[in-house]
Structures are given as C-alpha cells and as structure tokens.
C-alpha cells in the first residue's frame, strides 16, 4: 500500500476532509489513542478545538 504519511500530507495540504484508521497491530499507539478519546468523551470534549 501507499505510504500513509505521504497520503495524509497530501490530503492535509488539499484542505480536504479525512479519517485515518489506526489498526490494532500497533497496540501501544492504539491504546494511547483509545485512552485519549475515552478521556475527552468523559469531559464532553471541553476545550478541544478543530480547524474548519
């Protein structure tokens, strides 16, 4: 498959919408991202901003 970093960079530069998948074969990163989202969900995503 293509280099995901390069693909993400192209999408970002085009200011396009995107969702990147995180597979379970990276268990440490997967757990960190899961924990981050669970914590933000408990906090109602308070203070989290996004760019539109």
What does this 3D model show about the protein?
This protein is mostly helical. It has a domain at 18-52. It has helices at residues 4-13, 27-42. The longest helix is centred in the middle third of the chain and has 16 residues, at 27-42. The N and C termini lie far apart (29 Å).
Describe the structure concisely for a colleague.
By secondary structure, the chain is mainly α. The protein has helices at 4-13, 27-42.
Query: Which class of secondary structure composition applies to the elements?
Result: mainly alpha
Mean pLDDT: 84
Strand content: under 5%
Percent of residues in helices: 40-55%
Low-confidence stretches: none
Measured between the Cα atoms of the first and last residue, the distance is 29 Å
Note the overall shape.
Answer: flat
Report the sheet with the most strands, covering strand number, pairing sense and barrel closure: none
Number of strands: 0
Radius of gyration (CA) equals 14 Å
- State the helix count: 2
* Order of SSEs: HH
Supply database-style keywords.
single chain; 52 residues; mainly alpha; 50% helix; flat
Helices and strands, with pairings:
Layout: H1 4-13, H2 27-42
């Amino acid at each position: 498959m293509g280099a995901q970093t390069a693909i993400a960079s192209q999408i970002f530069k085009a200011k396009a919408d995107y969702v990147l998948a995180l597979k379970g074969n990276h268990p440490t990163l997967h757990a960190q991202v899961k924990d981050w989202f669970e914590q933000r969900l408990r906090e109602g995503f308070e203070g989290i901003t996004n760019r539109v």
